[in-house]
Amino acid sequence: MVDSVLQDAAEFLADTRFVDIPPDVVALSKRALIDYFGCGIAGCGEAVVDNTYRWAKARSVATVSSVIGKKGCLDAEHAAMCNAVAGHALDFDDTSWTTIGHPTVVAAPVALALAEQHGATGREVLRAYAAGVEVGHKIAQLTMPETSQNGWHTTAVYGVIIAAATHACLLKLDKETIVNGLAIAMTRAGGLRSNFGTMTKPLHAGLAVLSGMEAVGLVQEGITASHLAFEGADGFSYCFMGKATGARARFGQDWDLADNGLAFKLYPCCSGTHPAVDLMLRLIHGGAISAKTVKSIHVGSSLLGPLELVNHRPQTPVEARFSMEFALASVLIKGQLTLDEFTEAFVAGRDVQEMMGRISMDVDDALARLGFIGTAPVKLKITLTDGEVLCVENNLARGNPEKPLQDADITTKFLNNARRVVPEERAEALLASLVNLEAAPDIRAIMAATR
Q1: In DSSP terms, which residues pair with 296 in a beta bridge?
Q2: If DSSP states are collapsed to H, E and C, what string results for 366-393?
Q3: Domains of the chain listed by start with CATH number
Q4: pLDDT at residue 51 in the model
Q5: Residue 83's pLDDT is what?
Q6: SS in 3 state form for the chain?
Q7: Cα torsion for 90, 451, 204, 197, to the nearest 10°?
Q8: Which residues form the MmgE/PrpD N-terminal domain (predicted)?
């Protein structure tokens, strides 16, 4: 093999054993999978999932892997695709600031679908998930923030790599196959941020999964690719960054999942709204403001804010998930921002539409100087009807590693999500299985419980 970034990644994926993964990374991986299952179950009935499922079912060539919320099974690739879309449909899944994207919603469906097909254990799922995400994060460390700055949806870019890496790790493929699989995955990476606020945003996760798994499958049939697909002339780094890089990642020497962790969401919408929502909830529940006393709100955001929060007068729940105006209007009117607020009737309601008209957003000069970051720091200027002006700011939402959710919070979120679709007893039994995932001798019973 050629000495390259992909060789380093392949050696890491092939050589890393479950016992080599730091205990805190194992714990984080299990938490991420619990959160993913809840989001996937809650999202499985969304129109984008039903549409994707019909497309996938027509093309599936086997019935070996479960599709969340559907009675039948599909081949592993198409089942994983549908489950990725379900997990991302509500934009409630976890976030990585290393990628400014959503790694679990691509890694988990791949690991689970293949584990169900091949009878893999819970430990093997956790190993493949952690190693697959780590490879995507290491590649992102070498190519961010330029990839996001250039307009790419990073879940679609790094997600293809994560999917291929997870696939190769779960199947314990040889290093040569892994290198070629990652190289093909890199040649299929891509997704446009201009599709935020549409069905295609969650579809990006499904397409990343399908492309990553197909990349590995093609190599298994004999297709080869450049071992310098990352750093070579016109390679991944050049095309996504606009410049070549000779940097190398420290695979296995340190873990990004341990150093930077994941952010878990409390609100089912773009994380760019969450610091502002935290502020508003604090002010409302503290009695400082109410829907009747607020005349106007101006939101000062960091550079990424206007690029993600593109819908200023949303009319549908899909649009509302990417609207600062809707998020704050919902909190003012209902005192909360939950799945219950993301309905056609509420979003299009006269009171919500009127309240959104009082809210504006642009980039704050001081926050812009922080650079192209995903954590979404905000400054709010709230003008009250009596003329009083409140100026408040928040650099980080709850759910980030620095403001972590407790295990009880993750449990509550999972059960609230799962109960929307499955009976409470089944939700609690599924949670118990996931809490003890590393002891599961076979993943099939867990996946069957999601159908």
Answers
A1: 383
A2: HHHCCCCCCCCCEEEEEEECCCCEEEEE
A3: 5-266+415-448 (1.10.4100.10), 271-394 (3.30.1330.120)
A4: 98
A5: 99
A6: CCCCHHHHHHHHHHHCCHHHCCHHHHHHHHHHHHHHHHHHHHHCCCHHHHHHHHHHHHHCCCCCEECCCCCCEECHHHHHHHHHHHHHCCCCCCEECCCCECCHHHHHHHHHHHHHHHCCCHHHHHHHHHHHHHHHHHHHHHHCCHHHHCCECHHHHHHHHHHHHHHHHHCCCCHHHHHHHHHHHHHCCCCEHHHCCCCHHHHHHHHHHHHHHHHHHHHHCCCCCCCCCCCCCCCHHHHHHCCCCCCCCCCCCCCHHHHCCCECCCCCCCHHHHHHHHHHHHHHHCCCCCCCCEEEEEEEECCCHHHHCCCCCCCCHHHHCCCHHHHHHHHHHHCCCCHHHCCHHHHCCHHHHHHHCCEEEEECHHHHCCCCCCCCCEEEEEEECCCCEEEEEECCCCCCCCCCCCHHHHHHHHHHHHCCCCCHHHHHHHHHHHHCHHHCCCCHHHHHCCC
A7: -20
A8: 8-243
Distance CA 438, CA 451 (A): 22
pLDDT digits (tens, 9 = 90+) for 345-371: 999 999 999 999 999 999 999 999 999
Cα–Cα distance between 370 and 373 in angstroms, integer?
7
Instruction: In whole angstroms, give the CA distance from residue 148 to residue 157.
Output: 10
Q: What integer pLDDT is reported at residue 247 of this predicted model?
A: 87
Q: Please state, in angstroms and rounded to a whole number, the distance separating the CA atoms of residues 134 and 147.
A: 18
List all residues 6 or more positions away from 204 whose beta carbon is below 8 Å from its beta carbon.
Answer: 88, 153, 155, 156, 159, 191, 195
pLDDT for 427 equals: 96
For residues 244 and 299, the model is more confident at: 299
Q: How far apart are CA 153 and CA 95, in angstroms?
A: 13
Q: What is the pLDDT of residue 241?
A: 92
Average pLDDT over the chain reads 97
Tally Cβ neighbours within 10 Å of residue 204. 29
Q: What is the pTM of this model?
A: 0.96
Q: How far apart are CA 233 and CA 231, in angstroms?
A: 7
